[in-house]
Design a protein that fits this description.
The complex is a heterodimer.
Chain A (H helix, E strand, L loop, with lengths): L1 H12 L1 H20 L5 H20 L8 H18 L5 H9 L1 H4 L7 H16 L7 H32 L7 H33 L16 H7 L2 H12 L9 H19 L3 H20 L1 H4 L2 H19 L4 H12 L8 H20 L3 H9 L6 H25 L10
Helix pairs in contact in A: 1-2, 1-5, 2-3, 2-4, 3-4, 4-5, 8-9, 8-17, 8-19, 9-15, 9-16, 9-17, 11-12, 12-13, 13-15
Chain B lengths: L2 H24 L5 E2 L4 E2 L6 H6 L1 H14 L4 H14 L4 E2 L2 E4 L19 E4 L5 H24 L3 E7 L2 H5 L10 H16 L3 E4 L1 H7 L2 H6 L10 H17 L14 E5 L25 E5 L6 E3 L9 H4 L14 H4 L6 E5 L5 E9 L7 H7 E7 L8 H7 L4 E7 L5 H8 L9
Parallel strand pairs in B: 6-7, 6-14, 12-13, 12-14
Antiparallel strand pairs in B: 1-2, 3-4, 4-5, 8-9, 10-11, 11-13
Helix pairs in contact in B: 5-7, 5-15
The chains are: A mainly alpha, B alpha/beta.
Chain lengths: 417, 424
């Protein structure tokens, strides 16, 4: 049932995309099966999957199929994990793994080992009659879904409007440029973490616990820590399937640096084929290597580390949100030169309308709200906790629906990757 | 985990989703959104599913979004909330708390606190980039046609709302990009030997911010008839200075009959519906027309018979008083072509005006001045440029556009050949 639902869900966007998904899945499984006798087939499968992704991402005029960047990573995970086990999983299990709809479009990326453990547990639960889905998990999922929907509609949506107003006016003053960059950084966080929460919520309701993707990354005290708390499932994938096989940090400092740069170059290229993304990946790699060599995180006060981290992450977002190096250079110039505190009409109207959302976004980017909620409801066994959570779901769903109806639904930013 | 609490939480989510879904499915279908002043998406035909399944699902998504249960009421309520909360950016418009008010003698004693609405399209850089990209192409084409015809060609820039109201807005509007655009268009015209008249600067220098605020509707993209009249006066003076017309041909106030419709009629601006009509009250509605209309003849085709004046100008005045006036019904619709002949005009010249909608409210002024005024809106179907030039023996060609509009339709229109082919 889950498989049929997932296929229907994906076919709704494009039947052609579904054919590609099915084609890649079939070939991947065949290669995994062949690799039971000869490990070279694993490599052949990986090359085929990555080649298909690269072709669609960089050569196909219409660009990559929806979700392809993510399901190809799932395919590679399957090939690698099956090779380690020495046998391929059954086709039905693999098909569910590849197409599981909550994670199909934009992750979180789930390794096959993680999926398999949960699949086994669910199968056993179904077999012994305890049921794969519980009321508690469904409620947890509902809360996560509503939380994600709220992040997307009530924070990322208005921030997107604010960014569309002030980003084009960035050249008018340094303060406008920094404000627009800050708003974009927050928009990106709430957009993607909102999606991830929705996906995890739906996953829970379907019986699967998808991995956590964001853990208040802007509170990190270094760039390295930021990337351990931002798009965590992608980082974990690169670590498991690229960084560790390359030797990780076990072969000396020099080799560690090279391995880190390879991972970050790959991360940049995965996001896009423009020089912006290559430079973004390489740049972050250099900063992370610097932190590694100097032991940065242990040597500086946490507050300084956080400022350092936010500075470099925002520098990276410039490359993320501009279409060419020339555009990015123009934006960097706006950040550091020109009129310093001139408040353009765009900036004034933006802060007038969106200061509440910006404040909410800044506060929500830290763990304070979550901690306060946890503190208020230490005992989750009480009815008051259940009612408070239900009320939160109700309020968020109503408000988010009203805002979405008014502003129209805007696509999640990460769908373009 | 408390089981009852969990059941309630799950029920709230599934219940709210079900209400939205079922409500949308059973809601009556409408074609038009009054709250947004736009047509709503239609259900895709079954043929679309056969031909292009992806397009079918995309259309179905769009239909669902457009017909969400109680969407119209939600949008109206939310817009009212945004206005009441004093938000500046509302439904793609920038609303100005200040920006001038009505003329003292227009609605005496009725202070209006309705905000000015500015289309956000004209506040940010993308539209300016488009204008600049098209500029060279436009003037190259104008240069080509002016070499082919024995007539004078003049490109006229009139001020769009942002430029005129920037000072009065107390810093809420930034007109710098508009000014850069003016310079850009002037330079482009100069490069291609096209005569250009910029009345923006004279409007800014000769009228105070308050006076300029009186020249634009609050809830409309356009200026009102007072603004158009004053602009037409300056255009005439500039044309006289350029030697295109005689200074003695410029009409005076005595040539026109003025009315203030503010008390008798209401005005529905083209931006008003996006604010759910919350800002429509208190519009200043000046109106002028030629004092002596006895000699004027109106045509809505190149070779047809005369038509009634209200067929092309001020049709709204014929409607019942409770029907709100709009920019189009008070001046003219954006017709593909119409012509006004005036044998007793002050200037013995036949003029062709190619224009955007800012021109609409200036027509009555020019009909007093010129023996024949041919007006073409290249966005709509009309006779070929070369046919009008030859059949009406045009002496003067005016391009009348606001400074942020370099029109693709204009470029394509003047390039079009009699056979219907397009020059490379």
């Amino acid at each position: 049932m889950l498989l049929c639902g997932s296929l229907l869900f994906y076919a709704w966007g494009s039947v052609e995309a579904l054919c590609v998904l099915v084609g890649i899945s079939v070939l991947t499984w065949v290669f995994a099966k062949l690799s039971e006798k000869n490990g070279a087939w694993t490599w052949a499968g990986i090359v085929l999957d990555i080649a298909a992704l690269c072709w669609c991402k960089y050569l196909r005029p219409e660009g990559v199929y929806a979700g392809m960047s993510f399901y190809v990573f799932h395919a590679v995970s399957f090939l690698c994990d099956c090779r380690k086990r020495g046998r391929a999983a059954g086709p039905l299990k693999f098909a569910v793994y590849m197409t599981l709809f909550p994670k199909l479009m934009m992750g979180p990326i789930m390794t096959f080992d993680d999926f398999d453990a949960q699949y086994m547990r669910l199968s056993e639960a179904s077999a012994d009659g305890t049921g794969a889905v519980s009321v508690d998990r469904t409620a947890d999922g509902a809360f996560l879904f509503a939380l994600g929907f709220g992040k997307k509609a009530l924070i990322a949506g208005p921030l997107s409007e604010a960014v569309s107003i002030i980003w084009p006016a960035a050249g008018s003053s340094v303060i406008t440029a920094w404000a627009s960059l800050g708003c974009f950084g927050l928009q990106l966080y709430y957009d993607f973490s909102g999606y991830s929460d929705m996906a995890r919520g739906v996953g829970l309701m379907a019986g699967f616990e998808l991995p956590l993707n964001f853990d208040h990354p802007y509170c990190s005290a270094s760039v390295s820590e930021f990337w351990r708390r931002w798009h965590m499932s992608l980082g974990a994938w690169f670590k498991k399937y690229i960084y560790f096989p390359l030797g990780g940090s076990r072969k000396g400092l020099g080799r560690t640096m090279i391995n880190l740069m390879i991972v970050w170059l790959a991360t940049g290229i995965w996001h896009g084929d423009t020089l912006n993304f290559v430079l973004w990946g390489v740049g972050l790699g250099i900063v992370i290597c610097f932190e590694r060599v100097t032991g940065f995180a242990e040597k500086v006060p946490r507050a300084f580390g956080t400022v350092w981290q936010i500075f470099w992450i925002l520098m990276g977002w410039v490359l993320f949100n501009t279409e060419s190096l020339a555009d990015a250079a123009g934006f960097y110039a706006s950040l550091f030169s020109g009129r310093l505190t001139y408040v353009s009409a765009s900036l004034a109207s933006c802060f007038h309308d969106y200061w509440g959302v910006i404040l909410m976004a800044v506060v929500g980017a830290g763990p304070a709200v979550r901690d306060a909620f946890g503190e208020a409801f230490k005992n989750k066994e009480t009815l008051s906790y259940g009612i408070a959570r239900a009320l939160a779901v109700l309020v968020i769903m109503v408000l988010a629906t009203v805002v979405t109806v008014n502003s129209g639904f805007s696509a999640f930013i990460y769908t373009r990757f | 985990m408390n089981r009852l609490g969990s059941i309630i939480t799950a029920a709230v989510l599934f219940g709210s989703t079900a209400i939205g879904g079922v409500g949308t499915a059973v809601s009556p279908v409408s074609d038009f959104s009054q709250a947004e002043n736009r047509s709503l998406a239609q259900l895709p035909a079954v043929e679309v599913l056969r031909e292009d399944p992806a397009r079918f699902t995309a259309m179905l998504d769009e239909w669902t979004a457009d017909h969400f249960v109680s969407r119209e009421q939600i949008i109206t309520a939310y817009t009212n909330y945004l206005l009441a909360a004093g938000k500046k950016n509302v439904r793609g418009l920038l609303t100005l708390e200040e920006g001038g008010g009505k003329s003292g003698d227009a609605n005496e004693g009725e202070a209006s606190d309705a905000p000015f609405a500015i289309s956000s399209d004209y506040l940010f850089s993308p539209v300016f980039t488009v204008v600049r990209n098209r500029c060279g192409w436009l003037f190259d084409n104008i240069d080509r046609v002016q070499k082919k015809h024995d007539a004078e060609f003049v490109y006229i820039m009139v001020p769009e709302k942002v430029l005129s109201l920037a000072e009065a807005s107390g810093g809420q509007l930034d007109e710098a990009l508009c000014r850069e655009n003016i310079d850009f268009i002037k330079a482009g015209a100069g490069d291609h030997h096209v005569k250009v008249i910029d009345i923006c600067q004279r409007i800014l220098s000769e009228y105070s911010p308050k006076e300029r605020a009186d020249m634009y509707y609050k809830t409309d993209f356009h200026w009102n008839e007072l603004g158009a009249y004053r602009a037409a006066e300056i255009i005439s003076m500039e044309l006289a200075e350029e030697g295109c017309i005689s200074a003695a041909s410029i009409p005076t106030a005595a040539d026109f009959y003025w009315r203030d419709l503010s008390g008798a009629r209401t005005y529905m601006g083209d931006l008003s519906q996006r604010l759910t009509d919350q800002a429509s009250d208190g519009e200043f509605i000046p109106f002028y027309m030629p004092a002596d209309q006895s000699a004027l003849r109106y045509y809505d085709s190149l070779n047809g018979s005369p038509v009634d004046r209200n067929t092309v100008i001020a049709s709204g005045l014929e409607e019942p008083a409770n029907v709100p006036l709009t920019y189009n019904t008070l001046s003219t619709y954006n017709l593909g072509y119409y012509r006004v002949e005036n044998p007793s005009a002050l200037e013995d010249k036949r003029v062709l005006i190619l224009k955007d909608s800012m021109q609409n409210a200036t027509t009555d002024f020019f009909t007093v001045m010129f023996k024949e005024v041919n007006i073409v809106d290249p966005r709509y179907d009309g006779p070929l440029f070369s046919d009008i030039m030859e059949q009406r023996n045009i002496d003067l060609v005016l391009f009348l556009y606001h400074e942020n509009n370099v029109s693709t339709e204009l470029m394509n229109y003047i390039k079009r050949e009699p056979e219907g082919t397009v020059q490379p």
